From TrEMBL, chain A:
Name recorded for this polypeptide: Cell cycle control protein
UniProt KW keywords: Cell membrane, Cytoplasmic vesicle, Disulfide bond, Glycoprotein, Golgi apparatus, Lipid transport, Membrane, Transmembrane, Transmembrane helix, Transport
Highest taxon above the source species: Eukaryota
Lineage: Eukaryota, Metazoa, Chordata, Craniata, Vertebrata
Any one GO CC term of the record: apical plasma membrane
Automatic annotation (TrEMBL), chain B:
Subcellular location: Endoplasmic reticulum membrane; Membrane
Residues in P-type ATPase N-terminal domain copies: 20-77
Residues binding ATP: D395, K396, T397, E578, F620, K644, R687, T767, G768, D769, R876, K882, N905, D906
Chain segments annotated as transmembrane: 51-68, 74-96, 278-303, 323-347, 960-980, 1040-1065, 1071-1092, 1099-1122, 1144-1162
Gene: ATP10A
Acyltransferase recorded as keyword: no
Protein name per Swiss-Prot or TrEMBL: Phospholipid-transporting ATPase
Length: 370, 1201
């Protein structure tokens, strides 16, 4: 009885432990445990990449990716987008004069009007962007040149901004609010949009300036020191950034909820762009409650208060009107990429199938003698 | 009152009654401390040691660079994190190791021993560490010596102490140590309080085989001290009830401790190769930095004086010149790109190796039930070398063989008897029955030969009898109660005497009495030359018997398991062969029961005990190749000489009766038959010995004795005279028979050798043994095949050796004109012929020739010849030669060498080889101590190399390449970004991700894969040893593979960068919202890449990958939610949360890894097709038709059938 018991234990994989506990007379030895882990015999899945497994995978990838790509491509194409370059580098451009005369130090505002026309109406909400090219907002020293504590409403940082803001930390012995190079270079063109009725009258299109920043930025990251009222008092003893025309508490005096550090244009600017050619949300044109399109087709005028110099870095300035879809703005790339990768997979599948067919035959014949 | 000691510069001195006690010199006490650190010194010392590693210095440099304001890219504190992490992981490992050493030290220091207390005048229990130099120590049987002790007294009647030195030199046979000469005559117990002498001896040194000094007594008498008086620390007292000694060296000054060098640091081949590529990484890094710096300079330059708003001035408000900017940027880039040098690679490799060592250690197949021993990995950092071995140098005795001699067969008087190892004594029963049943008148000559044969086996040796596990009783002395011997008392004996006596009268001339013709004999003890120099040797035959036993012998003897059961007697033999013969004789009831210097007692069935008066023992030496004993036969009272020796010499000494009568014919026939059997035995790989005897007349003996005594007492040339004397004695012998002793091969040796050979390993056997034996064993373990052409190189001078080498070469040229030396060219047809040729050649070279061959002028030729032979046997080689051979092959052929051995004589070879393997079975610890891996058996080598070696190599090689890939791929992402940020050193990847990506997010899966992945299963690896060549040729990690990996990494990073780039081009995406998806994509790509590389998926792989992804998202979400204002300069607040709501993010996560890994997938598929064909080829290959083999275009393995 004992013996058979013992043998039974020996048969299963975990016998040393069982014997060690059960048999009183067994000598403790150094024999390693016969566990799957210690003997490196863990049950394993071996994904052998054979023709049988890889070929279907290629086809499946192809079959999934191509429809997705087509869907994405169609979605992107349905997005309406209009881009107007108003840099004014060109003699014929309406903003040529402004662009030539303007620098950071000039005090007189220069305005120019750019007419354009829409061939098709924009149906849903329209987003109005300003776009800059060749503007390296991702420059390392530029990106770092800010003080998040100050922007968060910290009074100590307001009076004594972080060293990171240098050399835009103080001006005239007074701390700059908001400090740093990013704030200093705030985009300060004003864009207005007018619809030219067929009868010739201009109708200003209502541009909504709130709701363009991230909610978390507006409500968590950016705060005015000591609440939103009496910004003039709060910011007393600070200096405006050197390139600014007006102080930070004068950004939007009409709306205390959009003034000071929580001005949404300012917040949007402070979120530094990833690439040197970028756009930033400027205004939203909400869809009208009735069935008329948000922007009907016809003639429009873009009124630009030209403040922002880009000639020093050969930048371009653009105004973009765009609707958006669930996947964001107009960008056919992803759709094309999906279609391409899907097609390549499909094609490779076919090629490998052919190769496999050829080689497979050879393998077969060789296998027979064994 | 302490023991004052007064050492002189070269001499240690211990003096009890020193007149100036204030001149105390501190000797080290017996406490040992092998730890490297103390609690206080740990931090500085460990850091200091870690900074010896270049990589660590580099990383600290990078971290400190962060503190330089002009180039700080990261938060300086954060930048320290990886370095601190790496250093602390290593420090914790070191601390743990040191703690283990501390614990074992403590255990050893607190063992008990008996130390004489001068206050209480008795021996007290003390800890080992409390013993001091000059203390008297009493030791009992089976106790371990706590220090090096000079033996002053022993309970043994001969004033001997037997010790086992296995822990020191690995020899398990007992050694005798004797009491210092001056104390020899002490009859009563040694009284320490009366001791009053000064001991002077040499300074502590690590030479185990040397000890010199002298002891000066109060009387002024001075006696020499020799190594025979010294008991070394770590040895065990055996067979001796009690002994007393004085501590000479203690603690770290003991020879055992001085020999303990601690583990060596070896660097594996793979690691060397890796370091080269780390160097390349540094160069790539510098190139990338330089490129960026120049780019930045140019970028700055193009704006000229028009400073754009985004080009921020220096903190001081000064404008930076493009050149200065570029220089600053260069430093910044080094920090940003630091990840390219895989900081965690070194730590990860160490972790993986520890895990590999653990698994090797746990392997049940490498465990030996019999000795209850594991494989031990003593070197932790060369596991992967096991997968790249090309040459194996093996010791023979104890490594290939068991070193357990087993009596196999014998031939007596021309009749062959085989012997069953289990002790089935058919022969003896049959024989002795005949002896009894037959009337004495018919006592045939072959029967008397048989009896003589067994008596010779029993007494013609130096075997000592002892009882197991008990203090040695003086077996054979008359006082011994159990072994009372009455030569006259036994009635049986008396009867036999009568019988023999009457038989003699009737059978005159028959073999009992047949002796040699008259020759003069001499008498005297025959000490070995080195012994006679000892001052304790008082001379005379009284000592000669025992002095023989102290003769050093490389062999050891293991008691046969079965032997102990039948009797309580245990034999301590100088060589295992002798013991085997004695045990064999005992199996036939002819047992040795006692040996005294002048008397040997043999117990015969029904006859009882016979005591032979031992007149002389002429010990074995390698020139005569025989030994003899001269005894007075108790039955016939004749002077009889029994000689035992190598067949080649004994056969020549046999005198045949010149007469042509029947007797002469019979003798000739016997001689002829015996020679035949001897040849048969040799072919079976048995060690053969011939046994012969001669009977001397009193006159002959007297003549010989006179000369012999002269020789013994000669002052000059005594050895030579003794040698001559022995030669004079050993002539005109009468052949009794021959024995065949098997040095049994270890289990599985031929199979292991065959399999290792299939794996492409060259196996050389280097042995100290003689040529014939070595060749026999080589045949037995299939190292040589019967149809092999054997080239034997035996030369007397360099000229001849050179000549023979040359002849050999010309011979080869004649024999095989197609032969070319650099082997094997890739074309299968020529390798076919070549392997056929290699198959046929075996080289046998002896020690003396080897000495010439190793000479720098000939070594090239020797190697050329040797490498073209399939097997090489070096016989009679010294330990130094062994190591020189290994060194030569290793350095000249640039191959990976493995040396395997079990004895002290293999130590040097083990140390020289790339990987040293010790067999921990028989000969103890010396080889094991020097080795990197200790195996219980030779056959374990197969699994160790073919399976674990392959796995370790392939795992590590793949892991290292993967590491390079991973880091390069990740860093390249940032590099591409430099083109879009004005080469300003900006990074879209958040600094936290950048720093912890390697350490946390992507670390675990590769560790799991690096530890557990199996590219081929254990069974397949053992069935198809050819797969081992993969590692030999470094197939997994060739230099070009680094660059392939780099190219792949750069391609993948391009995909991972540009798909998000175009997907987000000209959008309102901000820096981190764009960078975080890239990080995620890179993580996915890297993990899926690892997944493609992983051949076997266990649940641990799944868990680790899931964990990695989970960890990344958890950390990202927590980090992005934690603080809206911290983590300057970047602040990724709520980025990940927003991303997870965007469909675009998921779309990117799907397409990018697929696009990035598509080439690899395609290539992987192709390779896997070829690989499966390879395995298949190997299968096919084992069958004769290999038609298909050559048609496969892409074969990674060179398959030799």
């Amino acid at each position: 009885m004992m013996a058979s018991n013992y043998n039974a234990k020996e048969e299963d994989g975990h016998q040393p432990a069982a014997i060690g506990h059960g048999g009183a007379g067994t000598v403790k030895n150094k024999k390693p445990d016969n566990t799957a882990f210690k003997q490196q015999r863990l049950p394993a899945w071996q994904p052998i990449l054979t023709a049988g497994t890889v070929l279907p995978a290629f086809f499946v990838i192809g079959l999934i990716f191509i429809p997705i790509g087509i869907g994405l491509f169609v979605t992107s194409n349905n997005i309406k987008e209009l881009e107007i370059d108003y840099t004014g580098g060109d003699m014929s451009s309406p903003c040529y004069n402004c662009s030539q005369s303007y620098s950071w130090n000039s005090t007189k505002p220069c305005t120019c009007s750019v007419p354009f026309s829409l061939d098709q109406p924009f149906e849903s909400n329209v987003f109005m962007y300003y776009g800059l090219s060749n503007f390296y907002q991702n420059h390392r020293r530029y990106v770092k040149s800010r003080d998040d504590s100050q922007l968060n409403g910290d009074k100590a940082s307001l009076k004594s901004p972080s060293k990171e803001c240098e050399p835009y930390r103080t001006s005239d012995e007074k701390p700059i609010a908001p400090c740093g190079a990013i704030a200093n270079s705030l985009f300060n063109d004003t864009l207005e949009l007018y619809y030219i009725d067929p009868n010739g009258s201009r109708t200003a299109i209502p541009l909504v300036k709130k709701g363009i920043a991230w909610w978390t930025d507006k409500h968590v990251k950016f705060r005015n020191p000591g609440g939103n009222d009496n910004l003039t008092v709060v910011f007393q003893g600070t200096s405006k950034p050197v390139n600014w025309r007006k102080s930070v508490y004068e950004l939007d005096p009409s709306d205390p909820d959009n003034n000071g550090f929580i001005n949404e244009d300012f917040i949007v600017w402070m979120r530094t762009a990833a690439l040197p050619t970028f756009r930033k949300l400027y205004r939203i044109i909400h869809k009208k409650p009735n069935m008329t399109p948000t922007l009907p087709l016809g003639q429009y005028i873009l009124e630009v208060t030209y403040n922002y110099p880009v000639r020093s870095f050969e930048g371009r300035k653009r105004m973009i009107l765009s609707t958006i879809s669930w996947m964001g703005g107009k960008n056919p790339f992803l759709g094309i990429a999906y279609i391409t990768v899907g097609s390549v997979c499909f094609f490779l599948g076919i090629v490998l199938l052919i190769i496999h067919h050829k080689y497979g035959n050879r393998n077969h014949s060789a296998d027979i003698p064994s | 009152s302490n023991w004052p000691c007064k050492p002189t510069p070269t001499v240690r001195k211990q003096n009890k009654g020193d007149d100036s006690p204030q001149k105390k010199i501190h000797y080290s006490d017996n406490e040992i401390k092998t730890t490297k650190y103390t609690l206080l010194s740990f931090l500085p010392k460990n850091l200091f040691e870690q900074f010896h590693r270049f990589a660590n210095v580099y990383f600290v440099f990078i971290a400190l660079l962060n503190f330089v304001p002009v180039c700080n890219a990261f938060q300086p504190q954060l930048a320290l994190a990886p370095v601190v992490f790496i250093l602390s992981v290593t420090a914790i490992k070191d601390l743990w190791e040191d703690y283990r050493r501390h614990r074992s030290d403590k255990e050893i220091n607190h063992m008990d021993c008996l130390v004489y207390s001068r206050y209480k005048h008795q021996y007290m229990e003390r800890f080992w560490k409390e013993a001091r130099v000059g203390d008297f120590i009493r030791l009992r049987c089976n106790e371990i010596l706590p220090a090096d002790v000079l033996l002053l007294s022993s309970s043994d009647p001969d004033r001997l102490v037997h010790i086992e030195t296995a822990t020191l030199d690995g020899e398990t046979n007992l050694k005798q140590r004797r009491v210092v000469c001056s104390f020899l005559d002490l009859d009563c117990d040694f009284d320490p309080s009366k001791y009053n002498s000064v001991i002077e001896c040499e300074k502590p040194n690590n030479d185990l085989a040397r000890f010199r000094g002298y002891i000066t007594h109060r009387s002024g008498r001075r006696d020499g001290l020799y190594k025979d008086n010294l008991l070394l620390r770590g040895c065990t007292i055996r067979n001796t009830e009690e002994c007393v000694g004085i501590v000479i060296y203690a603690g770290h000054e003991t020879k055992a401790m001085l020999n303990n060098n601690g583990p060596r640091y070896k660097r594996s081949k793979l690691e060397k190769q890796m370091n080269v590529d780390v160097g390349w990484c540094v160069i790539i890094l510098l190139v990338m930095c330089l490129f960026s710096a120049i780019g930045h300079g140019l970028w700055m330059y193009q704006y000229g004086d028009k400073r754009p708003v985004f080009d921020v001035l220096s903190p001081e408000g000064a404008e930076l010149s493009p050149v200065l900017s570029a220089i600053y940027l260069f430093l910044t880039m080094i920090i940003v790109f630091q990840v390219l040098i895989p900081v965690s690679l070194f730590v990860s490799i160490e972790i993986v190796k520890i895990c590999q060592v653990y698994f090797i250690h746990q392997d049940q197949d490498l465990y030996d039930e019999e000795t209850d021993s594991h494989l031990q990995c003593r070197a932790l950092n060369i596991t992967e070398d096991l997968g790249q071995m090309q040459y194996i140098f093996s010791d023979k005795t104890g490594t290939l063989t068991e070193n357990k001699m087993v009596f196999r067969r014998c031939t007596v008087a021309g009749v062959e008897y085989s012997h069953d190892a289990n002790g089935e004594t058919i022969l003896s029963q049959m024989t002795f029955k005949r002896f009894h049943s037959q009337s004495l008148s018919q006592l045939p000559s072959d029967l008397t030969d048989i009896i003589d044969f067994f008596i010779a086996l029993t007494i013609c040796n130096t075997v000592v009898v002892s009882s197991p596990n008990q203090p040695r009783q003086k077996v054979g002395t008359d006082s011994g109660p159990r072994w009372k011997i009455g030569t006259e008392g036994s009635p049986v004996l008396r009867k036999l005497r009568q019988v023999v006596g009457s038989g003699r009268s009737r059978l005159t001339g028959e073999s009992w009495l047949t002796g040699g013709s008259g020759r003069s004999w001499l008498t005297g003890g025959s000490g070995r030359s080195w012994l006679t120099g000892g001052s304790w040797l008082t001379g005379g035959s009284g000592c000669s018997g025992c002095s023989m036993q102290t003769g050093s012998s490389g062999c050891s003897m293991q008691t046969e398991p079965g032997a102990l059961e039948e009797g309580e007697l245990r034999y301590e033999a100088e060589s295992p062969d002798e013991a085997a013969l004695v045990y064999a004789a005992r199996a036939y009831k002819c047992s040795l029961v006692g040996r005294l210097p002048d008397q040997v007692t043999v117990e015969l069935p029904d006859l009882g005990k016979l005591s032979f008066e031992l007149l002389h023992t002429l010990g074995f030496d390698s020139t005569r190749k025989r030994m003899s004993v001269v005894v007075r036969h108790p039955l016939t009272d004749q002077i009889t000489v029994y000689t035992k020796g190598a067949d080649s010499v004994i056969m020549d000494l046999i005198t045949l009766p010149s007469t042509d009568d029947s007797k002469g014919k019979r003798q000739r026939k016997i001689l002829y038959k015996t020679q035949n059997y001897l040849n048969l035995y040799a072919a079976d790989g048995l060690r053969t010995l011939c046994i012969a005897k001669k009977v001397m007349t009193k006159e002959e003996y007297a003549v010989w004795l006179r000369h012999h005594l002269e020789a013994e007492t000669a002052i000059q040339g005594r050895e030579e005279l003794l040698f001559q004397s022995a030669l004079r004695l050993e002539i005109n012998l009468h052949l009794l028979g021959a024995t065949g002793v098997e040095d049994r091969l270890q289990d599985g040796v031929p199979e292991t050798i065959a399999s290792l050979r299939k794996a492409g390993l060259q196996i050389w056997v280097l042995t100290g043994d003689k040529q014939e034996t070595a060749i026999n064993i080589a045949y037995a373990c299939k190292l040589l095949e019967p149809d092999d052409e054997i080239i034997t190189l035996n030369a007397d001078s360099q000229v001849r050796s050179s000549h023979s080498t040359l002849t050999l070469r010309s011979f080869q040229k004649d024999y095989a004109p197609a032969y070319s030396f650099p082997p094997p060219p890739p074309s299968p047809s020529s390798s076919q012929t070549q392997s056929f040729l290699v198959h046929r050649l075996g080289l046998v070279i002896d020690g003396r020739t080897l000495a010439y061959a190793l000479d720098s002028s000939l070594d090239e030729k020797f190697l050329q010849v040797a490498r073209s032979c399939r097997s090489v046997l070096c016989c009679r080689s010294t330990p130094l030669q062994k190591s020189m051979v290994v060194k030569l092959v290793r350095n000249k052929l640039k191959v990976m060498t493995l040396a395997i051995g079990d004895g002290a004589n293999d130590v040097s070879m083990i140390q020289v080889a790339d990987v040293g393997v010790g067999i921990s079975g028989q000969e103890g610890m010396q080889a094991v101590m020097a080795s990197d891996f200790a195996l219980p058996r030779f056959r374990n080598l197969q699994k160790l190399l073919l399976v674990h070696g392959h796995w370790c190599y392939s795992r590590l090689a793949n892991m290292i390449l993967y590491f390079f890939y991973k880091n390069a791929m990740f860093v390249a992402l940032i590099f591409w970004y430099q083109f879009y940020c004005g080469f300003s050193g900006s990074a879209m990847i958040d600094q936290w991700y950048l720093i912890f990506f390697n350490l946390m997010f992507s670390a675990f899966p590769q560790l799991i894969t690096g530890t557990l992945d199996k590219d081929v299963s254990s069974e397949t690896l053992q069935e198809l040893p050819q797969l081992y060549m993969n590692g030999q040729n470094s197939e997994e990690y060739k230099p070009y593979m680094f660059w392939m990996t780099m190219i792949d990494a750069f391609y993948q990073s391009l995909v991972c960068f540009f798909i998000p780039y175009f997907a987000y081009a000209d959008s309102d995406v901000d820096l981190l919202t764009w960078g975080t998806p890239i990080t995620t994509l890179a993580l996915f790509t890297i993990l899926i890449h690892l997944g493609l590389e992983t051949k076997t998926w266990t649940w641990m792989n799944w868990v680790s990958i899931t964990f990695s992804v989970g960890l990344f998202f958890t950390v990202a979400l927590c980090y992005n939610a934690s603080c809206p204002t911290c983590y300057s300069p970047s602040n990724p607040y709520w980025t990940m949360q927003r991303l997870l709501r965007e469909p675009l993010f998921y779309l990117l996560c799907v397409i990018t890894p697929v696009a990035a890994l598509l080439p690899r997938l395609v290539r992987g598929r192709c390779v896997s097709v070829y690989e499966s064909e390879n395995v298949w080829d190997v299968h096919v290959c084992s069958r004769p038709h290999s038609e298909m083999l050559n048609t496969t275009g892409v074969v990674d393995l060179t398959v030799k059938c």
